[in-house]
Write a structure and sequence with these properties.
This protein has 354 residues and is α/β, with parallel strands linked by helices. The chain contains 14 helices and eight strands. 43% of the residues are buried.
């Protein structure tokens, strides 16, 4: 069964350049990545300052990326996080939202995502209030697909600790009240799920009254705990048997755009091969496609250091790795060197600012 794959640029930290975004679209499209959702936490005009217009240079960059996606046959979307708009969806909020939707329409967005993650969510009528916002936006956008992210987008209790206890029956109410044509993002049993199973996805689909739209938080490596590690290994825990239970599969990429292509290719391979998928072999094939055979072989030997040991525990190995990858003239090698130099480190202050 074919699964719609895509990139959800939804990480904290240093944003990709417009050129890198376009290159990522072009590279992954032949492997079945059919949508690109622009929703970086670093874009304040989609988040805390969402009521303000994007500056001209950013608007031009978005327009160019939308055009590039159309030329590549890839759906282009934008994720808007209208900060706690559901607490007081008044006339001013509606006016600002209408203006933002008109801007997205002018870009020619195919997908509109309304995102309520990372917001206070303990109010009793949360589902009803959020559905009212999504329905209002749905009636005023020309996007052909709409997806919303709930405030509680996983079973993981960490969200209850951070944003307040989830209201009783929240997911079921969303499923009952939200137009069946509108998708709902889901990250799984955890914020960063180790695996997805047909049983779990069937249960969530029954609650939501629709197949969940996966927001897969691998290989993303933002945040203080994850940014000291490079997530390079092939996908595991995403068997092809989950395909009938999901609406689509979006990947939140790593901070390193070229390196992220390696695991991204393995996910496509997992769905293609089904029960014949071998994650070790898939890594070798994908790494060779992205890096070339020699570079891929070197990277394979260093996987434990880069993905398991991590930046803070490398010790003397850091200098050795820097010398090795500093001698390679390849964008992925440049990303490894920058990571070794701390350029990709994400702190709590960075996350709070975004």
């Amino acid at each position: 069964m074919t699964v719609e794959l895509g990139i959800i640029e939804g990480y904290y930290g240093r944003p990709w350049s417009w050129a890198v975004r376009a290159e990522t679209v072009s590279f992954l499209a032949p492997y079945g990545y059919g949508f690109y959702l622009y929703a970086p936490k670093a874009d304040p005009f989609l988040r805390r300052r969402w009521q303000e217009d994007h500056p001209r240079d950013m608007a031009d960059g978005l327009a160019a990326l939308a055009a590039h996606c159309r030329g590549a046959g890839v759906r282009f979307g934008v994720g808007l996080s209208p900060y706690e708009i559901y607490r007081d969806f008044n006339a001013d909020a509606k006016e600002a939202l209408a203006r933002k939707l008109a801007f997205f329409d002018a870009l020619g967005v195919d997908d509109l995502a309304i995102l309520f993650d990372d917001m206070e969510g303990s109010q009793p009528d949360l589902a009803e209030a959020q559905v009212a916002v999504v329905d209002w936006a749905a009636s005023r956008t020309r996007a052909s697909r709409i997806v919303m992210c709930p405030s509680y987008y996983t079973d993981d209790p960490v969200l209850d600790r951070l944003f307040g206890r989830r209201p009783e029956g929240y997911l079921r109410k969303l499923g009952e009240l939200l137009d069946p044509a509108i998708g709902i993002f889901w990250t799984g049993e955890e914020v960063c799920s180790r695996e997805y199973s047909p049983g779990h996805l069937a249960r969530v689909g029954e609650e939501l009254r629709r197949k969940p739209f996966l927001w897969d938080n691998y290989p993303v490596n933002d945040g203080p705990r994850m940014s000291p590690f490079l997530h390079l290994r092939a996908f595991t825990g995403r068997p092809a048997s989950i395909a009938p239970w999901i609406a689509a599969h979006g990947v939140n990429p790593a901070l390193q755009p070229v390196l992220t292509r390696i695991p991204a290719l393995t996910l496509a391979e997992s769905y293609r091969l089904g029960a014949d998928y071998q994650y070790g072999k898939a890594f070798e094939t994908a790494a060779s496609a992205v890096l070339g055979a020699d570079f891929a072989a070197r990277l394979r030997r260093d996987l434990i250091l880069l993905q398991d040991v991590g930046l803070d525990q490398l010790g003397e190995s850091a200098a050795h790795l820097r010398g090795k990858y500093g001698a390679i003239d390849h964008p992925a090698a440049h990303e490894i060197v920058a990571w070794l130099d701390g350029a990709w480190r994400i702190t709590e202050d960075v996350m709070r600012a975004q």
